Amino acid sequence: MSFLTARPSLESVDTALKCLAVIVGGLWTYLNYVRGRTFRKRLELTPSGAITDQGGTLVFTGQCVAKNVGLGKIPIVQRGTGVTIYALRLVPNPGGTPYTREDLVTALSLFERHGWVEPGEAIADPFFTILPIPAAEQATLLGVRTVILISNGKTVWSASQITQFQKPKIPKNTQDMEEV
Hints:
By secondary structure, the protein is an alpha+beta fold. The protein has two domains: 1-36; 43-164, Immunoglobulins (Immunoglobulin-like), CATH 2.60.40. The chain has two helices and nine strands. The strands form three sheets. A four-stranded antiparallel beta sheet has the order 5-4-8-9, with no helix packed on it. Strand 8 (141-151) and strand 9 form a beta hairpin. The longest helix is centred in the first third of the chain and has 34 residues, at 2-35. The N and C termini lie far apart (102 Å).
């Protein structure tokens, strides 16, 4: 008889534990969602570039790839979005070791034809500029620093890369010219 009277209380304990488990599971899921970076707006920026000599004129060509690695759509605001290019030059120091100096070459806009980046999507935008370094001073060029900034109005993502200037090899004799 005592077993029959205890049965309704066991059912109520079972129901209460199931409700508690659902509430704890929901809170745990919400906590992981809030703490997790899965649904946050995230971009991976990959700048790249190369310096080429076009008959005594140095040309820098590059590309910026922006990949949305989050699960939210990221709008792109043109104000604050662009690429800045700096020439890194070696400056002789008469009193000691030489030092490097950054000279601003240009600032260009990026992703003008893109209003947003979808989740999992990668967009790319090429750019190029002429490096205004006279032929007599081209030996001082070490490379180019590219700085990429992308803004969505609230957040700014940035990436930077240095592209080294490979000076062309001058062949010593005609036999070396045939090998090149």
